[in-house]
Amino acid sequence: MTIMFDDNSLRTIPDLVAFLGSAQSLSLHGHGTVRERSVWMRGILIRFSYTKRRKAEKAVIVRYLAYITGLSIRTARYHIAAYATNGPVPGAYRRHRFSPFYTAEDSILLAATDNLHGRMNGAATVAICAEEHRRGDQRYKRLGSISVSHLYNLRNQNTYQTHAITRGRTVAVSATIGQRKKPRCDGLPGFLRVDTVHQGDCNGEKGVYHIHLVDEATQWEVILSTPQISESFLLPLLQEALILFPFPIRNFHSDNGGEYINRTVAALLTKLQITQTKSRARTSTDNGLIEGKNGSVIRKHLGHWHINGRYAARINRFYREHFIPYLNFHRPCAFPTVTIDHRTGKKTISYPANTYCTPYQKLLSLATYETTVPKAVRQSLADQSILHTPNQAAEAMQTAKKFLMSLVTRPDDM
């Protein structure tokens, strides 16, 4: 039940005093906007000619206004002061706010970019946004120059979060094949890190094996799959993988797995005049680059679940047509910067945001690029680099990956 209160009959100060004396047991609750309340208060002040009253009479009017509106005496006097000075009717208080530089559209665009690329780290994502803006996409004007720290602030916003999506044991062998040391590329391309990633076994069925090769200087990647890692399957795959690199291969470095430390692979590398090395014992950093790439590239995009080995040829088609070009031409990588303290000789490794670039951009920056890569290959690489923007390549890759996963993750294969 709602009871309406009409105070038009209150015309004199004694009327207000009588009302306040008899209404102490009542509790009133005003409804309406702040402006409606202010207009009502100003009407009362005009009705009782507030400015012409004596001090005691003004106190009664102030008590009446405070009682009806529920405001404090101090706030009621604020409204009275506005009336006495012919000021505007006080409205709702609005705190001054600067207009946001990064809009909700920027957060949605960032989420869409992260969905395409699998939410890379901040510096790599900024590099992609800057490249998209450089290619002419004006939507990335602000994101292309955003700081890495503020990019993570956008990722914490509700707008972003509502649009974001976000093993076999190696058999130890003892063989004299390969030199046990960590190779040093000295900034030259052609020093490969190699490893095998297994998609696991299920119900006695072997999962597919991914042969992963990464160049140390440029982080150029080649990935191919095989149903088995026996010599008859692995040898042709390695030959193809080595050809897919645009520069000559100088060194082949792996762990001590038997799939690489054998006489067949050693004979192939010797024929191609490629030095073979293997990781040292109790030195995990020898193959740290490829181990990190296994998680951030293969596991991130293909997961840990079982994929039957019979799909190796179909996965290789996806690798050749979409994944390898995306990784080498459109996915930024972090390159270390080493600083040496001249007093202590201590080396400090950092990854500044301005060092993030794609493997192709890193290859272009090398002083030996023109002497290492043949002219015909250089032209082919340049044409392929401008064929798509990073987002276009990522979108095509994601579409192809979804179709691939719909084929290789059927219930009878799990």
- Secondary-structure class: alpha/beta
Q: What is the number of beta strands? A: 8
Mean pLDDT over all positions: 86
**If classified by CATH, what would the architecture of the largest domain be?**
2-Layer Sandwich
Percent of residues in beta strands: 5-15%
Specify Rg, calculated over alpha carbons: 36 Å
What is the CATH fold-level name of the largest domain?
Nucleotidyltransferase, domain 5
Low confidence ranges: 167-171
CATH homology group of the largest domain: Ribonuclease H-like superfamily/Ribonuclease H
Shape summary: elongated
As a percent range, the share of helical residues equals: 40-55%
Largest sheet: 6 strands, mixed
Cα distance spanning the termini:
64 Å
Q: How many structural domains?
A: 3
The ordered string of helix (H) and strand (E) elements is: HHHHHHHHEEEEHEHEHHEEHHHH
Lateral strand order in the biggest sheet: 1-6-5-2-3-4
Number of helices: 16
CATH class category of the largest domain: Alpha Beta
What's the layout of helices and strands?
Blueprint: H1 13-22, H2 34-47, H3 55-69, H4 73-84, H5 104-117, H6 122-134, H7 148-155, H8 158-163, E1 179-180, E2 191-198, E3 209-215, E4 221-226, H9 231-243, E5 251-254, H10 263-271, E6 275-278, H11 288-302, H12 312-329, E7 337-340, E8 347-350, H13 359-365, H14 369-372, H15 375-385, H16 390-408
Parallel strand pairs: 1-6, 2-5, 5-6
Antiparallel strand pairs: 2-3, 3-4, 7-8
